[in-house]
Each structure stands twice: as C-alpha cells, then as structure tokens.
From TrEMBL:
Entry's EC annotation: 1.11.1.7
Residues reported to bind Ca(2+) 2: 198, 244, 247, 252
Pfam families assigned: peroxidase (PF00141)
PROSITE patterns tied to this protein: PEROXIDASE_1 (PS00435), PEROXIDASE_2 (PS00436), PEROXIDASE_4 (PS50873)
Gene3D superfamilies linked: 1.10.520.10, Peroxidase, domain 2 (1.10.420.10)
Higher taxonomy: Eukaryota, Viridiplantae, Streptophyta, Embryophyta, Tracheophyta
Organism from which the protein derives: Rhynchospora pubera
Residues bound to heme b: 197
Name this protein carries in UniProt: Peroxidase
Binding annotation for Ca(2+) 1: 66, 69, 71, 73, 75, 87
InterPro entries the record matches: Haem_peroxidase (IPR002016), Haem_peroxidase_sf (IPR010255), Peroxidase_pln (IPR000823), Peroxidases_AS (IPR019794), Peroxidases_heam-ligand_BS (IPR019793), Secretory_peroxidase (IPR033905)
Domain Plant heme peroxidase family profile: 21-325
GO cellular component: extracellular region
Amino-acid positions noted as binding substrate in the UniProt annotation, renumbered to this chain: 166
Length: 327
C-alpha cells in the first residue's frame, strides 16, 4: 500500500509540474534517462556510422510540420494516414517519416518512466539529436540543448495543415506571411530553416512545372535538364529527386550556394533571391566560412517553442503517441 501511495504521489508531481515553463533538463529528477534513451534510439535508426540517410531529414521535417500546424504539441503524431480527420492524412504531410522512431522511443520510455515523458518532447529530442549528430559530422561538436516539459495535444485537424505549411511553389511574400505570423520567428529564421532543404528528397510532382513544358528561367538550364532525367514527363508514378544534388546526404550550407547558382530545387528557394531582407542572409550563408550551423540550431530551438501546451487542462501525456488517452 505504501509503495502505491508513493508511486501515486510521484505521478501527481510529474503531471502537475508541467504547468511550469519549459526548461532544459526538465526530466532530470522525474525521468533522468529520458534524453539518453531517445538519443540511443535515434543513433540506432541512423545506423551510425553507416547512415540511414532518410532518418535525419525525416525527423527534422516531422518537427517542422508539427510545430507550424497549431504548435509543437505532437498533434502530427495522432491517428494514421487513413484517418480523414488527422494531420497525417493531409496532402502536404504525405511522405512524412519518422513516426516509428518516435513510437520506439516512447515504448522504451514507458518501460522506464511510465506516464512521464510526452510524445511532443520525444519528437523535439529526436529531431534535436538527428540534427546534432549530422551537424557534428560536418562542423565538429556543437552544443544543442532544448527545453522540455511540453504536454501532448488531444486533437489533430487536417484542415489546418495546408494553410499552415509552406509550399514548394510559394513566393517570398507568401513565405513571409507564413513564417512571420509565428511568435519570435524572423526573416533570418525563414532563410535559416529553409537550409534544411540541403538534405532529403521531394516528389517530382512538386517541381514538374519548373521543367515542363519548358525549363524555368529561375533554374540553371543544365540543372533543369538533369531534373528532367530524374523526373520524366510521362510516367505512371511520382518519382523522387534529391533536394540538394551536390551533397544530398549532408546537413550543410551548400544549399545557399545552390540558391545563388539557380540549382535549388523549389521555386520557394529561388524566391529568397528576390528580397532585400533575405538576399543578404543567402549571401552570408553561401560564403565558404559561415555560422549557418550555429544559427540553424537557434532557429530549431525557436521552432520547438511554438505554441506549446503546459496546462494539464489543455493537454496530456499520451500513453501511445498515435492515440489520445481517452481513445
């Protein structure tokens, strides 16, 4: 009986304390191994030293798509692509990956500290770990601490996705309207976070209007013909193409050189050349020596703070990341 009472009090403290602000090391007392466990799972999935090249881009994109739609609350994890109501089923979320990594980390954390670590925090930890590991491989060690103490959303709304996420065909004005509507997100953050297009892949359908029927004058002609070989016009399937043809598996600043050379994949990438406030940042990060990696870490931290839930009346700590507890 005494053990049950103590355990109940422990859970009460763990749950009620999330009303406090986010902080680095939030789980140090209530689940000391939390961040270590997530890190181990991410390293396993990355397959160090033989990288599973899709894991890093997948986790970074997953965090972005979660944070920009309603906030960093794990809502993108709810349901399945077959559920017509869930964010997963939205057209802009087709191809999202990394869900199984979050689920794997959640299961291990439930075995270690049942009912303590939120899925929203797990997603932040996982995206942070993948980013840090890949940046370290190119730039050397970089400190990347993130706050935790988020609760999970109880809802997920498909109809919020399209209006909340940028599209490959967006112009600079559309990008600014979207990014600058988020708390503390600046024009520099827009340019910095766009640098995530330095790794990962996109479906050919996202860029076919840039290469057919003619190659857009916003593209390097030779690069346009290369894209045609990767994305033939008349095929019965939607192929994929690397976002960065030069260093497709590295998290680096080569992307900005691509933007300047008109060899960046999306129209939205090119559009950053059109702004008096965005072009200086593109030039800065395209230089041989720059601080993009440091600035990317800071922008990722801002991303992880968007509209978080810390009030237990509005959120919960899910037992299973794809389901609310009352399911």
């Amino acid at each position: 009986m005494k053990v049950k009472v103590i355990f109940s009090l422990f859970l009460l403290v763990a749950i009620t304390s999330v009303n406090a602000d986010l902080k680095v090391g939030y789980y140090n007392e209530i689940c000391p191994q939390a961040e270590k466990i997530v890190r181990e799972v991410v390293e396993e999935e990355l397959g160090i030293p033989f990288y599973n090249v899709g894991v890093g881009p997948g986790l970074v994109r997953l965090l972005f798509h979660d944070s920009f739609v309603g906030g960093c609350d794990g809502s993108v994890l709810l349901g399945s692509p077959m559920d017509s109501w869930s964010e997963k089923s939205a057209s802009k979320n087709i191809g999202l990956r990394g869900f199984e990594i979050i689920d794997k980390a959640k299961q291990r954390l439930e075995d270690s500290c049942r009912g303590v670590v939120s899925c929203a925090d797990i997603l932040v930890f996982a995206a942070r770990d993948a980013t840090q590991i890949l940046l370290n491989a190119n730039y050397g060690y970089i400190e990347f601490n993130v706050e935790s103490g988020r609760l999970d959303s109880k809802v997920s709304f498909k109809d919020q996705v399209d209006s909340s996420l940028p599209a490959p065909e967006d112009n600079l004005e559309q990008l600014k309207n979207l990014f600058l509507s988020k708390k503390d997100i600046t024009v520099q953050d827009l340019v910095v976070l766009s640098g995530a297009h330095t790794f990962g892949q996109s479906h050919c359908s996202s860029i076919k209007d840039r290469i057919y029927p003619s190659i857009s004058d916003t593209l390097n002609e030779r690069y346009g013909y290369y894209l045609r070989t990767r994305c033939p016009q008349y095929v019965p399937f939607d192929g994929v193409v690397d976002l960065d043809a030069r260093t497709p598996y590295k998290l680096d600043s080569v992307y900005y050189q691509n933007v300047k050379n008109l060899t960046a994949l999306f129209f939205s990438d090119w559009s950053m050349l059109t702004g008096d406030d965005t072009l200086p940042f593109v030039n800065e990060y395209a230089a041989p020596v720059n601080d993009w990696n440091i600035d990317f870490v800071e922008s990722m931290k801002k991303l992880s703070r968007l509209n978080v839930i810390t009030d237990p009346t509005n959120g919960e700590i899910r037992k299973i990341c794809s389901k609310v507890n009352s399911y």
